[in-house]
Specification:
With 548 residues, this protein is of the alpha/beta class. The protein has helices at residues 2-28, 155-164, 191-207, 245-261, 280-296, 318-324, 348-359, 391-404, 422-434; strands at residues 33-40, 45-47, 49-51, 56-58, 68-75, 81-83, 96-102, 107-113, 126-133, 140-144, 169-174, 215-220, 268-270, 303-307, 333-336, 365-371, 408-411, 438-443, 457-463, 466-473, 487-494, 499-510, 518-522, 529-534, 538-547. The protein contains nine helices and 25 strands.
Length: 548
């Protein structure tokens, strides 16, 4: 029994000695840093204060770890491996980093800290105020097949437009002139002339699944081989290209009846396009006749869109004449063309004058019935810059419309899909962001005015909690006496107590990019601020959600 107890005691002593031996071996291993310093982009060095007893290193006099461009370090002889290697952290260095010094079976972890770090602060150069809403919610986006009636002859293209792109109506042609032969005599509409357009209308309605009623807006087709010929002979008076208002109204009634029999309602109609071809009194007669006859026949009485000029004419123009003749009840919608060449200090006041006049007696919807973005080249030497710089006026026209208040948008030659130039992608991005959105106040360092060329121009729109922002920073490439400005880490702040919710999507186009642009996702640098690089020669779309 005694021998058994002695054996147990001997075993315990051996194990105890063994443990002490392992502990002693661990204590004898020397895992220490003997040097740790970094070089900054300024050329200055930060010498690390090493505390091997507490396994820590302090790097003083560094306010921004991104300024670290190299690191030098040494350690004791027992160290076999360091993980991670400090040089791999350059460019990603954090305020606190951890490095392990290893033997073959043991390691010691060191914490390297930057106590003098100062979080950079940025003063906003642009601000967005979500509560300061103005203008109107843009409800309608129409595809213009006046340009090409066969645009939707393929149902797949119709599905793209009325599914993915979210359009909710069509702008369609009425083929009045003898060049087309659509209305050879009173009461007659030649179906074959409209066959292509009818197929597009049918496919559009099949593809449409929106909540708003499907809108069909009809207008005079004027782009013929003979631009002076607008009406068939039976409508024209003894004065060339001046319509008899009653006969012209009857032609439109015939057209409405024809479309009704095909299952299509004409919701809106523009008697003129790009010019006032009737004087005020004839216009009033035509409107009264159209309204009376369509109502009597039981058809939907279309809204009358006016003035539908190729440019606003302001004071002493047809709109003034209409009001001077007490004819304001003879139109329902203010609709006008407003092309890129009209986005300037001379023509915008005319648009605003007519817009305000149209609202002076009652609330009227406002329609941009033929928005254009024409790709132009200022010189053969700049063939690769044919599109982007013209966006300053193309999107500028839209900024003007939405500043006033826009209910409906229709582009001439809308790019349904793909495209070989940035404008194709930008038009889609802008339109899809705009529909069901309303402008909110945005102020960049150049102010809100967008009519002056070659400055930074911006606008912001909101729908629900989604904010979409567009920046224009382009210059005509043929202008050589002006130095464009680029902006790096341009700070944009969100006001009214709102915060940015999640990541920020940025798509940026420049003349060196592929047409679809360059997409990145960024994080806000503060709850209510983000930084954006805006190079010259670029158009940028920013999208993010906000929360209170």
């Amino acid at each position: 029994m005694k021998k058994f107890n002695l054996a147990i005691l001997f075993f315990v002593l051996i194990m105890s000695c063994s443990k002490d031996s392992t502990k002693e071996e661990t204590v004898d291993i020397n895992l220490e840093f003997t040097q740790f310093e970094v070089t900054l982009s300024t050329g200055e060095k930060s010498i690390g204060i090493i505390d091997n007893d507490n396994n820590s290193i302090t790097l003083p006099n560094i306010t921004d770890p991104s300024e670290i461009i190299s690191v030098t370090y040494q350690y004791s002889d027992d160290v076999k491996l360091i993980t991670p290697k400090p040089e791999t952290r350059i460019g990603e260095w954090k305020i606190t980093e951890k490095f392990r010094l290893h033997t073959t079976s043991y390691y010691k972890e060191f914490k390297v800290s930057i106590p003098d770090y100062e979080k950079p602060t940025y003063t906003n150069k642009a601000t967005i105020a979500p509560l300061e809403r103005f203008g109107r919610v843009t409800k309608y986006h129409l595809l213009d097949i006046n340009h090409n009636p066969g645009t939707l002859s393929n149902i797949d293209r119709a599905n793209l437009v009325f599914g993915q792109a979210g359009m909710n109506g069509l702008r369609i042609p009425i083929y009045c002139g003898d060049y087309y032969g659509g209305h050879p005599e009173e009461g007659v509409v030649v179906e074959s002339v409209y066959a292509t357009a009818l197929k597009s209308i049918e496919n559009a309605k099949l593809a449409y699944n929106g909540s708003e009623p499907f809108m069909i807006f009809a207008g005079l087709k004027v782009m013929t081989s003979n631009k002076a010929e607008y009406y068939p002979d039976w409508v024209t008076t003894e004065i060339d290209n001046v319509a008899n208002p009653i006969k012209y109204a009857q032609l439109v009634v015939d057209y409405i009846k024809f479309m009704h029999e095909k299952g299509h309602t004409i919701n809106a109609f523009a008697f003129d396009k790009e010019a006032a071809r009737m004087d005020v009194e004839d216009f009033k007669i035509a409107v009264d006749t159209l309204r009376a006859r369509t109502a009597r026949l039981g058809y939907v009485v279309p809204k009358i869109v006016a003035p539908e000029l190729y440019k606003p004419l302001g004071q002493n123009g047809p709109m003034d004449d209409l009001y001077d003749a007490n004819g304001e009840s003879h139109f329902d919608v203010f609709g006008n063309h407003y092309y890129q060449g009209h986005h300037n200090v001379n023509n915008f006041p005319d648009l605003k004058y007519e817009y305000d006049l149209a609202q002076s007696d009652t609330y009227r919807e406002a329609w941009a019935t033929e928005a254009h973005w024409d790709g132009l080249s200022c010189s053969s030497a700049y063939e690769n810059a044919t599109d982007l710089w013209t966006g300053e006026t193309a999107l500028g026209c839209m900024f003007d419309w939405t500043d006033l208040g826009l209910d409906l948008l229709s582009w001439w030659d809308y790019p349904i899909s793909g495209g070989n130039s940035p404008r194709h992608y930008i038009i889609r991005a802008y339109s899809e962001a705009l529909i069901n959105s309303q402008p909110i106040r945005m102020l960049d360092h150049d102010g809100e005015e967008t009519l002056t060329r070659w400055k930074l121009h911006s606008r912001a729109y909101i729908k629900g909690n989604e904010v979409n922002v567009f920046f224009i920073n382009v210059v005509n490439p043929c202008v050589t006496d002006f130095t464009p400005i680029s902006y790096e880490e341009y700070p944009i702040g969100i006001l009214d107590g709102f915060k940015i919710d999640g990541n920020i999507s940025v798509t940026q186009w420049d003349n060196n990019d592929e047409p679809e642009g360059n997409y990145i996702s960024i994080l806000p640098n503060e709850d209510n601020q983000f930084l954006l690089d805006i190079p010259h020669g670029s158009i940028t779309h920013v999208s993010f959600n906000i929360t209170e």
